[in-house]
Amino acid sequence: MTETTSGTSTRKGKSPRKGLKMERIFTSSGVHPYEEIEWERRDVVMTNWRDGSVNFEQRGVEFPASWSMNATQIVASKYFRGAMGTPEREWSLKQLVDRVAGTYTATGKEHGYFASDEDAEIFDHELKYALVNQLFSFNSPVWFNVGTESQQQVSACFILSVDDTMESILDWYKEEGIIFKGGSGAGVNLSRIRSSRELLSSGGTASGPVSFMRGADASAGTIKSGGATRRAAKMVVLDVDHPDVEEFIETKAREEHKIRALRDAGFDVDLGGSDIVSVQYQNANNSVRVSDAFMRAVESGASFGLTSRTTGEVVATVDAQELFRKMSRAAWECADPGIQYDDTIQDWHTSPETGRISASNPCSEYVHLDNSSCNLASINLLKFLREDDTFDVGRFGKLTELVITAMDISISFADFPTEKIGETTRAYRQLGIGYANLGALLMATGHAYDSDGGRAVAGAITSLMTGVSYKRSAQLAGVVGPYEGYARNAEAHKRVMRKHAAANDDLRTVGTMEKPIHEAATKAWQECLTIGEKNGWRNAQASLLAPTGTIGFMLDCDTTGIEPDFSLVKFKKLVGGGSMQIVNQAIPRALRNLGYPQEQVEAIVEYISEHGHVVDAPGLRPEHYEVFDCAMGKRYIAPMGHVKMMAATQPFLSGSISKTVNVPESATVEDFEHIYFEGWRLGLKALAVYRDNCKVGQPLSTANTEEKAEEEPEPTVVEVNRPVRRRLPKKRPSETVSFSVGGAEGYITAGSYPDNGLGEVFMKLGKQGSTLAGVMDAFSIAISIALQYGVPLETYVEKFTNMRFDPAGMTDDPDIRMAQSVVDYIFRRLALDHLPYEERAALGVLSAEERRAQAAGEDPSQVAAQVESYAQSAPVALGDSTEQETGGPARDGAFATDRDTTSGSRGTAEFAEERQGFVADAPLCVTCGTKMRPAGSCYACEGCGATSGCS
User: Fold this and answer.
1) pTM (predicted TM-score)
2) In this predicted model, what pLDDT tens digit does every residue of 551-568 receive, in sequence order?
3) 365 has catalytic annotation
4) Would residue 361 show up in a list of annotated catalytic residues for this protein?
């Protein structure tokens, strides 16, 4: 977006300086970017599916017609500012973007970033175009705070420091609490604190860092992050040579044993449960910082020394392999600790003369100086895939320049939670540009995520992004000066730039798609080195890969960060209410790229819609299955596939990668050792591994429909999978149907959850007090309790329809003229009233109108859709009436089924569980109750956009 640095701009009280000369890429002169977009009004009403209560309501909000209802709901509920019901309340995306972009543009002009007012206007228009068209997004704090009367905090990631004094430890508690209150997360390394084996100056024995973790954990559990209900996000790191490292490693594993004991005793220890607060250390991610010396000792089977924090002397010697196995076993048991590779981190450090990198933010993607912060932004990669399936290298590069410019401007007006963090951030200006939708991009272009081709594309894009970012940073240094700490770190910074460029030279292309991307990256790195040698760089850090949880939904991304697709099918919310199941838009495009004709594409997509996977899809060749492998399900990506993808992108990132490698429940401790070791060997900076179903404090996960491998005999941990009962509220909707079967009369009363899910059934037959009436009452109670524990209604329909016994025969129900028994009738009636058409059709239960349509050669599903539409009719919201009334096709061109899922699965995770026979091991959203989806090393709710910790 720049291309030269000519012209001058006078700043307040400062001497003239050359500014950036901007050029239009996405916009046209004389046309405001909003004028090129179709806008529409919508009503946003968000409810909690557990009790039907309204979480958020704002009617008449204005958004582009191309934005999904899900993105609309998340932005309106989370990012619009102003008290509800007042004139100050924002109601249009235009107002939100104007508030944010206007602040950036005004600050840029004030600080001499632009060569002229015209260049500032171009920047303003280009930024607004990119935001309203979902090309990229800033992190959540920007949308929360910029342009408001509150503190203009723009950073989501923080790193603190703790020294070996009580004053410093107490300052840590306070600073962490302030950050949590603001809705962000923080990380800290406790290795400076002397161990419990060392003496205090008074002669007593020190408590050790693990003991001080208790206080910080209690504080984090008490403070509602950002004033909301989710827990705070924090990272605690300890160096592998600390004398208390074994205690640190086993801390959370021991607590997990306690959780199991409490659960088996009947206590509520689920995530957010009333009794989980009695368990310690649950509010932090723990990581061990390992050195190359330690990993080489593991490799050779040597011993390793633990050193005193006060004297630096070796106070104990341990078997490196045994310690490494303890780390792996603890992570196998409870997912903690993760691992960080210290020498790799320091080797890519641009500012080592200022200090070491000792910690990371909670999700491990930001690794830089203590008492610093980083603001993030992520690019939507799928927006740069052209119709001919080539990647738009030019526009991607120009957007990267625009985003880096804006991110650097934000540091000039940003507020920070502590003065120390503000000083360091202003002096080193750390940025964190990244991307989302990589998994969708690879699938759309026919690349398997776990393939050399997929990794080559990912590596080339990441190299181009970082190369352009640092080139722009060097250009900014020529305009507004390098970062303050550059002079003392110049040689180190140049060395790291050369390392990135050398890694780019080593990247080997294997297909045609990544070749022009790699060529552009090579050019960008050459220009970066040339300009940087002259000007220095404006930013000590430029890029990383963040989870993109909430903003991923804002961008309507299929996949977050570096992640592959979670599931091949997702749910789209409709403008008029309800939702529809759609096959991800990348799938038909991938099939066409793989050479399948349109007829086969449609057949395969229909199969995926029904089954949720591609195995045995009609006409799909087995060698193409891998293209559609997902994070979980019937065909999931192998753990090392995730590690290799991280390794393919890590050399081109200033920071690290937020990602958890998920492994099946059958994984062994040896598997963890292998993954952790390979992460070091492949040059990663940090790594976390999560074994399915290893934590009690989250919904449990097993693939019940697939044969399990024999359990690992050691260590012995007995898992007891216990469902949770979802009770009906005191006041709930119900429906009573009277019936007659073979002359016997009775009643069915069906009670529902406020969101229409069936929760109880009472069947009355025979005189009160008779044996038959008593048996039917007992049967009703058993069915109702089972429904509340999650047994699907369709399971009962399958089991009890066609059951034969007297009374049987004619009924008075026009939809069910004959019944084999009272039970046969009851469950057919319940199916007609409470199951969607597709599930009923599979079970052979159709209404009279549907059977008539079928006999006439018509599509009975259309009859079902009309009936459901009539039953769910409500005042039509402002906007696209066609989509509101019919649930029309997805605007993004994805293939959609005709099934309305309002009363069925409530999200993509639930659908995947239902169709593929596994349970996604993720927490329920504490805001709206929807099961969350993995997003990097966090979880994000596609219902309301809430995250489990990372912003």
Assistant:
1) 0.78
2) 998 999 999 999 999 889
3) yes
4) yes
